[in-house]
Amino acid sequence: MHRAVYLDTSSDLEVVSTEHEHGLGHWTDLERLKRLDHPERLALMPHAPILAALDLDQGMHVADIGAGLGYFAFPISIAVRREGRVFAVDPSPAAREELKRRVQSAKVHNIIVQDGTAARVALADRSLDRVLWHALFHELPNLDQSVAEMARVLKHGGLFVVADWLPGASEWGPHQEERWPRSKAEKLVSQSGPFRTKEVFEPGPVTWGIVFERV
Ligand SMILES: C[S@@+](CC[C@H](N)C(=O)[O-])C[C@H]1O[C@@H](n2cnc3c(N)ncnc32)[C@H](O)[C@@H]1O
C-alpha cells in the first residue's frame, strides 16, 4: 500500500495517509481522467449554476475535493481572485500530476494541488469558507466519515456544495446502481454532520445539487 506524508504549509498540519491508490479504480489512468475534458461536459455540467451556488467572494478559501483535472478549480480560482485560495484535493497521483502541470502552464498562483481524500484532508480545522464535491458523492466508500471531515475543515456558516449524477438521467456517467437520489444524499449528509440544507438546485440536465450550511 502506498504511504504518503504531506504537509499543509498554511497550517503546519501534518497528515499521514495510507489509503491512497487503493480503491481508486480507473482514476489512476490519465487517459480515463482526460474524459473529464470532453467538450460535451460543458453542456451537461455547466459551470455557472455551481459557481452561483458556491456564492464566492474575493479572498475566500475553497476546497475542491476530488478535483480531477480542475474542471471547477480553475473557474473558482478566478472568482476568489489573487488573495483567495483553492485547495484542489485528489488522491489520484495521475490527476494531481496533470493538474499541477496545467496550473503551472496557466501561471495560476492561487490553486494548491494536494494529496488527500474526502475522509482525510491536510487542512486545518475551520479554515475554509467553501467546499465543493462535484461528481464525487457516488465515488466515496466512507461517506459519514467524509461528511464529518468537511464539518471539521469548514468555518461555521461556511457552505458545502454537493452535486452528483441524477439516477436515470443519461447513459454517460456512473452505473445506475451507483447513483444516489438527491433526497437520500441530503439525509445522509444532515445525519452525518452539523449541516442544514440551505438550498436545493438543478445544476444541469444530468445532476442534482444541494447547498448545505455548516452550523
Ligand atoms: C468523476 S471525477 C470528478 C472530478 C471533478 N470534480 C470534475 O467534476 O471534473 C472524480 C474524482 O474524484 C477522485 N476521487 C476518487 N476517490 C476519492 C476520494 N475518496 N476522495 C476524494 N477524491 C476522490 C478521483 O481521483 C477523480 O479525480
Question: Short summary of the structure?
Answer:
By secondary structure, this protein is of the alpha/beta class.
Describe the structure.
- There is one protein chain.
- By secondary structure, this protein is of the alpha/beta class.
- The protein contains seven helices and nine strands; from the N terminus they run ββαααβαβαββαβαββ.
- The chain has helices at residues 30-33, 41-44, 47-54, 73-80, 93-105, 143-153, 182-192, and strands spanning 4-8, 13-17, 61-65, 85-89, 111-114, 128-134, 154-165, 195-201, 207-214.
- The strands form two sheets. The protein has a seven-stranded mixed β-sheet, with helices on both faces. A two-stranded antiparallel ribbon has the order 1-2.
- Helix 6 (143-153) packs across helix 7 (182-192).
- The longest helix is centred in the middle third of the chain and has 13 residues, at 93-105.
- The model is unreliable at 1-21 (pLDDT under 50).
- The structure holds S-adenosylmethionine.
- The site of S-adenosylmethionine has 19 residues, from loops.
Q: Specify the biggest β-sheet.
A: 7 strands, mixed
Terminus-to-terminus distance:
37 Å
**β-strand number:** 9
Output the CATH topology. Answer: Rossmann fold
**Widest sheet: strand ordering:** 5-4-3-6-7-9-8
Q: Find the structural class using helix and strand composition.
A: alpha/beta
Instruction: Give the amount of beta strand, in percent.
Output: 25-35%
Low-confidence stretches: 1-21
Shape assignment: globular
Mean pLDDT across all residues, rounded?
A: 90
Domain module tally: 1
N-to-C SSE string, H for helix and E for strand: EEHHHEHEHEEHEHEE
**CATH class categorisation:** Alpha Beta
The value of Rg in angstroms is 16 Å
CATH-derived architecture: 3-Layer(aba) Sandwich
Bound molecules: S-adenosylmethionine
Total DSSP helices? 7
The CATH homologous superfamily is named Vaccinia Virus protein VP39
Helix proportion: 25-40%
